[in-house]
Amino acid sequence: MILLRERTIQEPASIICDRCGRRSDIESDDVEFDEYLSLNRIGGYGSIIGDGTRLQLDLCEYCIKELLYPFARINEP
Ligand SMILES: [Zn+2]
Question: What mean pLDDT comes out for the span 45-68?
């Protein structure tokens, strides 16, 4: 028999755009929450970011469109 124990976990509740400050809350059933782009990267050996330097960024879809669309490959359905 396996006995269970109570356990508290943390999960994302809100996300804030690092560029414009737009906030989206997961509990508001806001579809924008799922449209954020989150980047979490660590520079490797020889990287111009810096070896071992962590780069984190959250962008809302409005900023994604403004900043990345000029360079992105867009394939509409
Ligand atoms: Zn934004």
Answer: 96
